[in-house]
Amino acid sequence: MPTKTLTIISTYQLSEAEIKTILTSLGLQKSATLLVDNQIDKGIIAGIVIKYNDYYLDLSLKNKLREIVGNLS
């Protein structure tokens, strides 16, 4: 079975417990076929961004602020 990569972008290195909570929330579990890549990007200000296959979930403060500014325009 091919390995799939779940990328989690955050402002700091996540602990194993935090990663496990995210995986559980997504209905996934860590396995030999799932590689979790925690990337650091302080530009997102707070929150996380998740990329998995064609799935993209942006829960960052930067994105929320962008949405607010867009709604004000």
TrEMBL record:
Keywords: ATP synthesis, Hydrogen ion transport, Ion transport, Membrane, Transport. It holds the Pfam family OSCP. It is found in: Membrane. It comes from the Bacteria. GO terms for molecular function: proton-transporting ATP synthase activity, rotational mechanism. One of its GO terms (cellular component) is membrane. Its main location: membrane. This is Uncharacterized protein.
